[in-house]
UniProtKB/TrEMBL annotation:
This is 4-hydroxybenzoate polyprenyltransferase, mitochondrial. It comes from Spodoptera exigua (Beet armyworm). The lineage of its organism: Eukaryota, Metazoa, Ecdysozoa, Arthropoda, Hexapoda. GO terms for cellular component: mitochondrial inner membrane. Belongs to the UbiA prenyltransferase family. It catalyses: all-trans-nonaprenyl diphosphate + 4-hydroxybenzoate = 4-hydroxy-3-(all-trans-nonaprenyl)benzoate + diphosphate; all-trans-decaprenyl diphosphate + 4-hydroxybenzoate = 4-hydroxy-3-(all-trans-decaprenyl)benzoate + diphosphate; an all-trans-polyprenyl diphosphate + 4-hydroxybenzoate = a 4-hydroxy-3-(all-trans-polyprenyl)benzoate + diphosphate.
Length: 412
């Protein structure tokens, strides 16, 4: 009688123990199969693919009348063999397969637009132009110019990502109403606001580390651009010409690259270069904005695409003229000669073809024309390098002391 009472008491204790374990484990998320059981009943196994299989458990007795719970599987195993509270360990693991990249990494790539590198190219080209122009009149080593160009490429990737993150944080309510942007990570919830802030802080911290590699003049000049970076996304809400603010922000590298090499600015070169790049940005971003003009009109977002409207072609032609003239003056101030001016003419032909063949009612054509501007940056850079090389070779042919005359560190 006493033994039967003890046995029933132990079984009751075991049942309570298992129920407590079920309650604890039910609150956890596991990426491995788990078993939640009850005595002499049916249980369900939930695996990582969310399929359910059915099995049975039963209780047995062992030596010294200890209660055991056995799961009937291919190889029966003991789950509990003691009457003591024991919580199954949380064997978590990180699955770094395709699902991990899609769910955990891809939203951040999209938030920073790193899956669309065209923005990095467009941000980097003015930096590369100014670095190359600064290298022409200087006497710095080739390694210095190349290292600086590499740092600016990294910085362009980070700052473009930071700018896009800030833009999406400001525009989450607007993006939800625009067809092209309604699947962005902050809109869908793939990235929370807190996660976006942390991600932004990480990008800006890395960008600051890159900036601190430059001279003091450039550090101050680079830091001063942050006001534009943070406030640009608001321009489209309050001005009809947000592309001007974008151009002012996006082409800061036309100033910063020169100072990174020379230690200060030559405004005769950097001023026209900056204005020319800014006007170029108005051209390509107006083309880009024509993709969303109908949605922008509905939600109250402003752009030069809406402002120019039917006059887009003549307006962009004026911007192209300002851009080409400014770039030409910058090359003249840097004494880059005919090779560079020919590159400017090639740029005019390329941009004019975009403007006058653009189908403003076709979003796909707008996107294609916008992306083609990556080659514009390469055309101008090739002109700078060709002009610098010709100047360097002319100095050698004339027997000038290269150390005392304007020479290109890219060809020394």
């Amino acid at each position: 009688m006493l033994n039967n009472s003890i046995k029933m008491y132990k079984i009751t204790q075991l049942q309570n123990l298992i129920q407590r374990t079920i309650s604890l484990n039910a609150k956890r998320k596991f990426s491995v199969p788990l078993t939640y059981s009850c005595i002499c009943g049916q249980i369900y196994l939930k695996n990582t693919h969310h399929r359910y299989e059915i099995t049975r458990v039963h209780s047995t007795q062992s030596d010294q009348h200890r209660q055991k719970v056995v799961i009937e599987t291919t190889t029966p195993k003991i789950v509990y063999d003691k009457l003591q509270e024991k919580v199954l360990p949380d064997h978590r693991h990180i699955d770094v397969g395709p699902g991990f990249w899609k769910d955990k990494v891809d939203p951040y790539l999209k938030l920073a637009r790193w899956d669309k590198p065209i923005g990095i190219y467009l941000l980097y080209w003015p930096c590369a132009w100014s670095i190359a122009m600064a290298s022409v009149p200087g006497t710095v080593p080739l390694q210095t110019s190349l290292q600086t160009a590499g740092l600016f490429l990294i910085g362009a990737g980070l700052m473009r990502g930071a700018g896009c993150t800030i833009n999406d944080m400001w525009d989450r309510d607007v993006d939800a109403k625009v067809e092209r942007t309604k699947t962005r990570p902050l809109v869908t919830g793939a990235v929370s606001e807190t996660q976006a802030v942390v991600f932004l802080a990480a990008q800006l911290s890395l960008a600051l580390a890159v900036l601190l590699k430059l001279n003091c003049y450039s550090i101050v000049l680079g830091a001063s651009s942050m006001l534009l970076v943070v406030t640009y996304p608001l321009a489209k809400r309050y001005t009809n010409y947000p592309q001007i603010f974008l151009g002012a922000t996006f082409n800061w590298g036309a100033l910063l690259g020169y100072s990174a090499i020379q230690g200060d600015l030559n405004l005769a070169i950097c001023g026209p270069l900056y204005i020319g790049a800014l006007a170029w940005t108005i051209v390509y971003d107006t083309i880009y904005a024509h993709q969303d003009k109908e949605d922008d009109l509905k939600v109250g977002v402003k752009s030069t695409a809406l402002t120019f409207g039917a006059n887009t072609r003549p307006a962009l032609s004026v911007c192209l003229g300002v851009s080409a003239l400014s770039l030409s003056l910058a090359g003249q101030a840097a004494d880059l000669g005919m090779p560079y001016q020919l590159a400017v003419l090639a740029y005019i032909a390329h941009a004019a073809q975009q403007i006058y063949t653009l189908d403003m009612e076709n979003p796909e054509d707008c996107a294609s024309k916008f992306k083609s501007n990556a080659s514009v940056g390469a055309i101008i850079l090739m002109g700078i390098l060709a002009g610098g090389y010709k100047k360097y070779m002319n100095n050698i042919a004339e027997g000038k002391n290269i150390q005392d005359t304007a020479k290109s560190c890219l060809f020394s």
